[in-house]
Design brief:
Blueprint: E1 7-9, E2 15-17, E3 25-31, H1 40-51, E4 56-62, H2 74-85, E5 90-91, H3 104-112, E6 127-130, E7 136-140, H4 150-156
Parallel strand pairs: 3-4, 4-5
Antiparallel strand pairs: 1-2, 3-6, 6-7
Length: about 160
Amino acid sequence: MSVYDYTMKDAQGNDINLADYKGKVLLIVNTATGCGFTPQYEGLEDLYEKYQEKGFEILDFPCNQFANQAPGTDEEIVNECKMRFHVSFKQFSKIKVNGDEEAPLYTYLKKEQPGALGGRIKWNFTKFLVTRDGKVIKRYSPMTKPEDIEADIVAQL
């Protein structure tokens, strides 16, 4: 198994096969527009603008499981992110990252990089770094700012 074995819905409801990202370095993030970590969108967009042409992609999965901090429809979330943070990386449909209804992609990510909570996602803006060949090599806590993982991303590019 790898991240390439999953198909996810984008914010417009289209099926996106993650195999389309083969050969890219990925940062997979569960996000929220009403979270204390929401300003990290700025840092994420900065990284994306800097490294997209070198094969870096960010996959943004809004999640409303943590204190209902991702309210609204997928379209409303996309519009807010574009207006407030000028987000241009790929945004997906809202998902659950823990529990019985969690997205299978997140079951896989947590198995590969369990983190300190025995796999559970602690909060929004948990980040997973994936190599060009689909291996999940690092997990970062919500408190880890995007700029603090830049060197890890560059090392994979």
